[in-house]
Amino acid sequence: MSLLMPNKVNWQEIYNTEYVNAPECWKTCGGYCCKNFYGEHFNILDKSGVSLPLLENEYEYYKSIGGIKNITTPAKKRTFTLSNGKSFSIYLLSCQCGGLCEPHGHRPLVCRIYPYFPIVDAFGTVIDFEYSALMDLFYRDPDNNHKCTLVREQAIKLKRELTVSMKPLLRDPEVVFIFRCLKELVDRLKEKMGGFIDTLDESQKKKFIAKYEWMILSGKPWKDPAFSKRIDTIYDEVKAAFGNEDFL
Amino acid sequence: MSLTNSIEQAINNKLIEKHGEQILVSLNKQDSLISSGLLDSLDFISMLMEIENSLNLDIDFEEADPVQFTSYSGLIQLLSESANA
Asked: Strand, coil or helix: what is A53?
């Protein structure tokens, strides 16, 4: 069975949606989601900011509404090409707002759905959730140790709400494809890193973060034929699920 | 041109592209190219990838000391060593 015609995301609608309804939750964690809590150990990555990835169409919409005034560094574009010649781009914003982005209503999707991203099947059905901030992947027991209060105290409620509120977003095959790729990406990263940051002493933590920086920036964990083949397969699966039409 | 010279030339080219010829005069070769603001993280990595491709090296700094490989002189030393390994 396949779905009918691909549905492109209406980013205005997405930016008008409150995915996580937890007003003032930041008061309970010091604004963890908007800060770089391990930045002091970074040697290559930005010590004080966070990188926010935006999809290409999202970035176009974000720009069209004027973006966030206190993010002044131009976005960096990274383009990825599949074996079939199709490509997609991600724009990376370097945010140092520390939670005080202005206007707050212009913040990207990744901020809106924090602390999670959905794990989806080829049809865009939510199967589960994974942590959306890469450093959040490395807690040994996130249900209890995570610095985000929502993860510790409201995970079930939040996941239930996100499963419903993300449905319009998941009608777009490109978004489904990206989330499925992201899941592969984080699985591979976890496998290569092989450790939990909250179990390490300061010296081990320094080495762990140095390795993490190198992995993330060099892209080495994902530069092999098996990973490329997996991404090609994901593309084909999503294409088949959405009426067999190319979506990139 | 020796491999070390080729690596040095590639780094110089990146710095000149970003800041102009004068940057090579004021450059402190022991300073981090990133914390000194000469390159950002993505510039730095794209420079490494360009060096990797153009000189046919397999750069792997997974176990390397970032303080060393982010400095001009440390980077040249590490890349030369890894090429000769």
From this structure: strand
Q: Do the chains contact at B48 and A213, CB–CB below 8 Å?
A: no
A92–B65 C-beta distance less than 8 A = no
Burial call A105-143: b when 16+ CB within 10 Å, e when fewer:
ebbbbbbbbbbbbbbbebbbebeebbbbbbbbbbbeebe
* Cα–Cα distance, A211 to A50 (Å, whole number): 18
Per residue in A135-193, pLDDT (tens digit) is 899 998 888 888 899 999 999 999 999 999 999 999 999 999 999 999 999 999 999 99
| Cβ separation B66–A76 shorter than 8 A | no
Answer yes or no: are the C-beta atoms of A71 and A94 closer than 8 Å: yes
> Measured between beta carbons, which residues in chain B are less than 8 angstroms from residue A213?
66
- Min CA distance, B61 vs chain A (Å)? 7
Q: Can you name the CATH fold of B3-84?
A: 1.10.1200
pLDDT number for residue A6? 55
- In angstroms, the CA A65 to CA A15 distance is 10
Where exactly are the structural domains of chain B? 3-84
Which residues in chain B are closer than 8 Å to A215, comparing Cβ atoms? 62
Contact B45 A45 (CB under 8 A): no
Confidence of residue A40 (pLDDT cuts 50, 70, 90): confident
- Would you state the structure tokens that stand for residue A237, as one six-digit string? 């699966």
* Predicted TM-score of the model (pTM): 0.89
